[in-house]
C-alpha cells in the first residue's frame, strides 16, 4: 500500500513538473552539419556561378544635426556603389539610433529616380516633393545631396531636375542658382 | 466495519491504480507528443529559414536596394523577425533589440561559418532562433521564430491529458466501488447469517448461488457447519433431557423415603435428625434442579407449548407477585403501575409469566435481600416491567452473563450458604424470549439490581 502511494505521488509529481517546462530551452546553440544545409547557402559564391560574390563597402551619406549642420554618416552598400544607390540610402533617412542621437533629414520625402556624375557635376533627378519644401528646407535638402555627391566624386557641385526640368535653388543671399556648388552651401558644413 | 474497511481499501486500490496508470500513460503521451510537435515545428521553421535566407541572398545579388522590401515581405508572410549582420553592422526592421534574442555563442558560431539553431526564453518569450551565414553575400541572417503558439498547444495538451487522467481515475474508483460491492456481497450475506445464528435462529442457512466456485464452496461449508452445530446442540439437549428424566424417578423415590423418615423424626437420634434435615434440603434443591433442567430442555427442543391469552398486564403482575410471595414467604413488594399501563394488555402464557416473576423474586430473596418494588411503565409500544432488589447491584462485568446457565455471580459466591440451581435466570430469559420479549440486568438508580423486562402490548384496532 505504501509503495503504491509512493508511486502515485511520483507520477503526479512528474506530471506537475512537466507543466513547468513545456518547451525546454537549449543551453547552447546546436550546429547544423554543413552537408545538410540546402540551397548552397554556405557556398562562397552565388549558386550556378563560380565567381559571383557580393562585396560590401562603406560610404558616407549626410544628415542634419540639431544645428542643421550636415554631418557624415556611414552606410554599408554593395560594391561597386553607385550615386543612385548612395542617394537611395540618403532618402531612407536616419536609423532609429541616429534619430535618438538628434539627426534628421530633409530628403526623406524625395525619390531619386536617376543620378550620375558628368565632369564632376552630379545630375540628380527627383520627384516633385522638393517643391513642397520651404526655401530654407530646400537649401538643407540640397546641402545633404550636395555633400553626399561630393563624397562620391562630384566635386564641382550638383544640378537638380524635377520632371526633367532644372530646379533653381534660392540661396540664403537671395541669389538663384541651378548649379549648386560646395561654396554656395559651405555654411552648412562644420569647419 | 471490517467489510466497510475492506471495501474502502478496494476502492482506494482501484482509484490509485487507475490514477497511477493514467498519470504514467498521460506523462508518456505528453512527452512523446511534445517532442514530436516541437521537432516538427522546428524542422519546418528551419526549412523556411533556409528559403528566406536564399531569397535575401538573391535580392542582395540582383537588387540590393530592395533588401528592406524583401525583409519586410518575408517577416509578414512568415510571421518571424529577421536580423541581418551586414558588413559587421546589425540591421533589422523590427523594433526589438537584436542582441537580446541571439546568444553570443550563436553569433560566434555564425562568424565561424556554422548554421546554428537555439531555443531561448527571453522576457517570457520563447523563441527559436536560426542563424545562417552566407559567405557569398557576406551576410549573416538570424531568423527569430516565436514559439508562443506551440507553448499554448502544449498547455492545451497538458490540460486535456490531465482531465483525461482525472476522468479515468474517477472511472477506476467507480469500478472499484462496483467490484467491491459485488465481491463483498457474499461476505455480507455470510456475516448477516452468522449474526442471526448467534441470535438463536438456527433455521438460518445461506442461499445457494452461482456467484463462482469459491462462493459456492463457502456457502456449502457454512451450511454444513451450521447443520453440525444444530445437530450437536440437539444431541446435547436430548442428553440433558434424558438424564433429567432418568434421574427424576429415583429422586422421587428418595423424596418419598425422606418424607416417611420425616414422619418418624421424633423417633430418631439427634444426629440422625440433623442428617435427615440436610438430606431433605438437598433433595429439594436436586428436585428443583431436575425440574429446571427438564424445562430448559423442552424449551431448547421447542417442545414447550404456549398457551397464549390476552391479559391486562397490571392485574396479571399484581396477582403473580402476590401468589409468589405467598408461596415463597417474605414481605410482598409493592407493585407500582403507571396510570397509562392500567389498561394495557399483553399476549402472554400465564404460567410462564408467573414463573418469570417467581424466579426473579426467588433470586432477589436468595441473593439480594428481597424485592424492593415492581414497577410497570410504557416504553413506546412495549410495556416495561422493572423488578428492583435490595442488594448491592450487579457489577458491570456480571450484567452480560447473569442469564447464562449455571453462571454464578459475585453475590452467589458471597452467600455460599444460600443454594440455587444456577438455572433460574436462564429460564427467565427463555420464557421472556418465548413471549417475544426482552430482558436485561441493569443497575437500579436506588442502588440495587434492576431486571428490566419488555413485552409487546397488544394493539386493538380503533
How would you describe what is shown here?
The complex is a heterodimer of chains A (191) and B (462). With 191 residues, chain A is of the alpha+beta class. Chain A has a domain at 56-188. Chain A is built from four helices and ten strands; from the N terminus they run αβββααββαβββββ. In chain A, a hairpin with a 2-residue loop joins strand 4 and strand 5. In chain A, helix 2 (83-92) crosses helix 4. The model of chain A has no long low-confidence stretch (mean pLDDT 87). With 462 residues, chain B is α+β, with helices and mostly antiparallel strands. Chain B has three domains: 2-153, Beta-Lactamase (2-Layer Sandwich), CATH 3.30.450; 213-301, Signal transduction histidine kinase, dimerisation/phosphotransfer (DHp) domain (Helix Hairpins); 308-456, Heat Shock Protein 90 (2-Layer Sandwich). Helices cover 59% and strands 18% of the residues of chain B. Chain B contains twelve helices and twelve strands. Chain B has helices at 2-62, 67-78, 98-101, 104-111, 148-198, 213-263, 270-301, 313-328, 350-367, 396-399, 410-414, 424-434, and strands at 80-86, 89-92, 115-122, 125-134, 139-146, 308-312, 335-337, 345-349, 371-379, 382-389, 438-443, 449-456. A five-stranded antiparallel sheet of chain B has the order 2-1-5-4-3, with helices on both faces. The longest helix of chain B is centred in the N-terminal third of the chain and has 61 residues, at 2-62. Chain B is rod-shaped and about 160 Å long. Classes of the chains: A alpha+beta (191), B alpha+beta (462). Chains A and B meet through helix 1, strand 1, strand 2, strand 3 and helix 2 of A and helix 1, helix 4, strand 3, strand 4 and helix 5 of B.
Name its key features.
heterodimer; A: 191 residues; alpha+beta; 4 helices; B: 462 residues; Beta-Lactamase; Heat Shock Protein 90; five-stranded antiparallel β-sheet; rod-shaped
Amino acid at each position: 500500500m505504501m509503495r503504491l502511494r509512493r508511486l502515485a505521488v511520483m507520477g503526479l509529481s512528474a506530471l506537475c513538473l512537466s507543466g513547468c517546462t513545456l518547451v525546454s530551452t537549449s543551453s547552447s546553440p546546436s550546429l547544423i552539419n554543413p552537408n545538410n544545409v540546402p540551397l548552397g547557402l554556405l557556398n562562397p559564391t552565388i549558386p550556378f556561378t563560380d565567381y559571383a560574390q557580393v562585396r560590401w563597402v562603406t560610404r558616407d551619406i549626410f544628415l542634419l544635426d540639431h544645428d542643421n549642420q550636415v554631418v557624415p554618416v556611414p552606410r554599408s552598400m554593395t560594391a561597386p556603389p553607385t550615386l543612385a544607390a548612395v542617394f537611395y540610402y540618403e532618402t531612407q533617412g536616419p536609423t532609429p539610433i541616429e534619430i535618438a542621437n538628434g539627426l534628421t533629414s530633409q530628403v526623406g520625402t524625395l525619390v531619386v529616380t536617376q543620378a550620375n556624375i558628368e565632369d564632376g557635376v552630379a545630375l540628380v533627378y527627383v520627384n516633385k516633393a522638393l517643391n513642397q519644401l520651404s526655401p530654407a528646407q530646400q537649401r538643407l535638402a540640397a546641402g545633404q545631396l550636395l555633400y553626399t555627391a561630393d563624397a562620391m566624386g562630384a566635386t564641382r557641385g550638383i544640378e537638380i531636375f524635377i520632371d526633367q526640368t532644372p530646379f533653381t535653388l534660392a540661396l540664403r543671399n537671395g541669389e538663384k542658382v541651378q548649379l549648386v556648388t560646395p561654396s554656395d552651401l559651405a555654411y552648412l558644413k562644420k569647419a | 466495519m471490517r467489510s466497510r474497511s475492506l471495501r474502502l481499501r478496494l476502492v482506494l486500490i482501484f482509484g490509485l491504480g487507475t490514477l497511477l496508470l493514467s498519470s504514467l500513460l498521460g506523462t508518456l503521451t505528453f512527452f512523446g507528443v511534445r517532442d514530436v510537435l516541437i521537432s516538427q515545428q522546428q524542422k519546418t521553421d528551419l526549412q523556411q529559414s533556409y528559403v528566406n535566407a536564399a531569397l535575401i541572398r538573391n535580392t542582395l545579388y540582383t537588387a540590393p536596394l530592395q533588401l528592406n522590401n524583401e525583409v519586410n515581405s518575408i517577416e509578414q508572410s512568415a510571421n518571424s523577425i529577421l536580423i541581418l549582420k551586414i558588413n559587421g553592422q546589425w540591421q533589422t526592421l523590427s523594433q526589438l533589440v537584436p542582441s537580446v534574442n541571439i546568444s553570443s555563442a550563436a553569433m560566434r558560431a555564425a562568424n565561424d561559418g556554422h548554421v546554428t539553431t537555439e531555443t531561448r526564453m527571453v522576457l517570457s518569450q520563447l523563441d527559436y532562433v536560426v542563424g545562417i551565414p552566407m559567405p557569398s553575400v557576406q551576410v549573416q541572417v538570424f531568423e527569430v521564430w516565436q514559439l508562443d503558439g506551440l507553448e499554448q498547444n502544449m498547455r492545451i495538451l497538458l490540460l486535456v491529458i490531465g482531465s483525461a487522467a482525472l476522468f479515468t481515475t474517477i472511472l477506476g474508483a467507480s469500478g472499484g466501488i462496483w467490484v467491491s460491492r459485488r465481491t463483498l456481497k457474499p461476505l455480507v450475506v455470510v456475516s448477516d447469517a452468522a449474526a442471526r445464528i448467534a441470535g438463536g435462529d438456527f433455521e438460518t442457512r445461506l442461499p445457494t448461488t452461482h456467484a463462482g466456485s469459491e462462493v459456492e464452496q463457502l456457502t456449502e461449508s457454512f451450511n454444513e457447519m451450521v447443520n453440525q452445530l444444530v445437530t450437536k446442540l440437539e444431541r446435547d439437549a436430548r442428553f440433558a433431557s434424558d438424564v433429567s428424566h432418568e434421574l427424576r424417578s429415583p429422586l422421587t423415590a428418595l423424596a418419598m423415603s425422606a418424607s416417611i423418615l420425616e414422619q418418624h423424626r421424633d423417633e430418631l437420634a439427634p444426629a440422625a435428625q440433623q442428617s435427615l434435615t440436610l438430606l431433605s434440603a438437598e433433595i429439594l434443591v436436586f428436585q428443583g434442579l431436575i425440574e429446571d433442567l427438564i424445562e430448559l430442555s423442552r424449551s431448547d427442543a421447542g417442545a414447550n407449548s404456549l398457551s397464549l391469552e390476552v391479559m391486562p398486564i397490571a392485574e396479571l403482575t399484581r396477582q403473580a407477585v402476590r401468589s409468589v410471595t405467598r408461596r415463597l414467604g417474605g414481605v410482598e413488594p409493592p407493585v407500582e403501575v403507571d396510570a397509562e399501563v392500567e389498561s394495557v394488555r399483553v399476549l402472554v402464557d400465564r404460567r410462564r409469566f408467573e414463573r418469570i416473576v417467581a424466579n426473579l423474586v426467588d433470586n432477589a430473596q436468595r441473593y439480594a435481600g428481597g424485592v424492593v418494588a415492581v414497577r410497570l411503565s410504557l416504553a413506546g409500544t412495549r410495556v416495561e416491567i422493572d423488578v428492583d432488589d435490595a442488594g448491592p447491584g450487579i457489577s458491570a462485568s456480571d450484567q452480560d452473563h447473569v442469564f447464562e446457565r449455571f453462571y454464578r455471580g459475585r453475590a452467589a459466591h458471597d452467600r455460599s450458604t444460600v443454594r440455587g440451581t444456577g438455572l433460574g435466570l436462564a429460564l427467565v430469559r427463555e420464557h421472556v424470549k418465548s413471549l417475544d420479549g426482552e430482558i436485561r440486568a441493569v443497575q437500579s438508580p436506588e442502588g440495587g439490581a434492576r431486571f428490566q423486562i419488555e413485552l409487546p402490548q397488544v394493539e386493538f384496532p380503533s
